[in-house]
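Entry details:
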Amino acid sequence: MRLRTLGRGPVTCPVLWIGTSFKMTKTRAQAVAYATRLRSALGGGVPGVQPFVVPSATALAEVSAVFGDDPRVLTGAQNAHWADEGAWTGEISVVQAADAGARIIEIGHSERREHFGETDTTVALKVATALRHGLTPLVCCGESADVLARGGSAQYVLDQVAAAFDGLADTSRALIAYEPVWAIGEHGREPDPREIADVHLALAAEWGDRVAGVLYGGSVNPRNASRLLCVPGVGGLFVGRAAWHVDGYLALVETARRHVEAAA
């Protein structure tokens, strides 16, 4: 099994990643309760699986403190600015996110692109800044239903990722999260594994040996997780509401553990 070393210090991360973003949910107390129960349930860690949790900015420091420097669960920020500091009202910097305990920076989610003006240019700036500060950029990419219908999904996603990594000599610390827009959110459609296979094969061929992992996200749940992990090129799952309760998250981690065990 291929291993990577990430973050601040000798954090060894296996191939399969299981992560969740809380989006704009959970108070600080709720987020801490979730993290505390998750830390206890995972015990000494899960061989072959790297869990991570991306809380809202208000809870990042407290959730990070629950996990401490223990690499069994990494924490991340849902967004960060490309400037180290400055007059950017309402933003947080990569430096500030790291100071609050983030090891991962989520960048370029489709909601950020659609509602907050995120572009390929700003995604690339943020990726470069995260890498410069020793953090792991989690680069989100994905096509609309119209692109899917036209049959151009793979090239569309490859172009997004190429733009995000433009000019970078070393992307080995980075993660890619393929999240088709038609599959994410409350009204997203659960994918047939065949619908995402071409994109993951293309990402694996182009970036598989140049990044720390390529994850799938979009209508993931404990019922379909095993099928999705079996898609060639999928190196983990990035999950929304199905993992917002600890039991759901743990079910996904257990599925990943069994998948790793079967492949060993």
